[in-house]
């Protein structure tokens, strides 16, 4: 009796969180670059995700060992490792979501580009897909969730509120001053001084450097944020309503061809790119300041792809 009640309660909890429907759809996820220092923890996080039924791990070397290790975890996903260019097609076949923490090409599935510099690699990927005749603007994402995670954490610390309750949109790009957290739109509302907002903005912009320096140059920022965004994409694919995350996508929010802002995720990827709403004067100035640098990064990516 107790077990059946517990299973029922757990199931309802998963449904509320978007992790279960009746039945849970089978979803295949590929991690390209899975044997690297970034790819391995991301592979494990995807193995832990109950929405994943098949996990394809691909790299140019050492993937079978990673796949064997990850496969031992007692979760739903079946794991397969692929090595070398001749096995890439097998890894991508039937994928719903492709996550790229390293420099590999994706497929017609939803593509989450983590590989930096995102402000350039997303335009590069777009041009590659255009040449192949497979580009779908709704299915290519630059993962900027790490900026959102940091903005939430820093805001919660300063406002002395629970970070689990906090939401802060972050727009622009994914490097330095192109990262613009919109603390004026943060919830719950905290009346922070303008000086505090400037400090929090700067810390969000240099958060990656903070991590790299703390690691004494041995490694970069962690990829838990990549797993968070992948989870949101899977929920959107499963039809969970009103899944909204910030991401660097093809956009008409500004005059730039790509821009990070809130997007609504559904079965075909991006259902809607949301606008910026009202900005504070500080944020308006920040937006205008970031545009030239972000444009340069986008143009660099497009030019690189067209010259290759």
TrEMBL record:
Pfam family, one: Ldh_1_C
Keywords, alphabetical: Mitochondrion, NAD, Oxidoreductase, Transit peptide, Tricarboxylic acid cycle
Transmembrane segment boundaries: none
One MF term in the entry's GO annotations: L-malate dehydrogenase (NAD+) activity
Species the sequence originates in: Gossypium schwendimanii
Top EC class for this record: oxidoreductase
Residue ranges of domain Lactate/malate dehydrogenase N-terminal in the record: 28-104
Gene3D superfamilies: Lactate dehydrogenase/glycoside hydrolase, family 4, C-terminal (3.90.110.10), NAD(P)-binding Rossmann-like Domain (3.40.50.720)
Record's subunit section: Homodimer.
Active site: 174
Family matches, as PROSITE patterns: MDH (PS00068)
One Gene Ontology CC term in the entry: mitochondrial matrix
Domain Lactate/malate dehydrogenase C-terminal: 144-304
The protein, known as: Malate dehydrogenase
Predominant location category: mitochondrion
List of residues binding NAD(+): 33-39, 59, 114-116
Catalysed conversion reaction: (S)-malate + NAD(+) = oxaloacetate + NADH + H(+)
